[in-house]
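Issue 218. Parser rejects a valid record. Input:
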Amino acid sequence: MTDAGAGQPIDPGVVELAGRMFDLARGGHADELAAYVDAGVPANLTNDKGDTLLILAAYHGHPRTVAALLARGADHSRVNDRGQTALAAAVFRQSAETTSMLLDAGADPDAGGPSARATAVFFELPAMVELLDGAR
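Output the parser choked on:
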């Protein structure tokens, strides 16, 4: 595996650590992930699909992990390679707690493609539409 930007081989230990971070985000291990971010792992680390730790935590329904990442500077406006945001992931999973948390942090319901609002409308999620409309 090489770093496309520099053409240098990526240390296998770094690849392994990154994989572990994504697993922690998916699994909702907020305290352990927060400790790694506090120790220097980037809060906006992305995988090969452009998913951030925040997007993965939101998609997998882990509001404590989302809160920990936001508190450490994770960018709620980042989009993955498919144009999806953490807010759209939370809406898709119908997590009112995570959706509210992201909105309170300033996430834009109309950002990305499909946006969180478009996701709520497409999947006919009236509670999510109402939550997003309340953010206006």
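Fixed in the parser; the record now loads. The first helix runs from residue 12 to 27.
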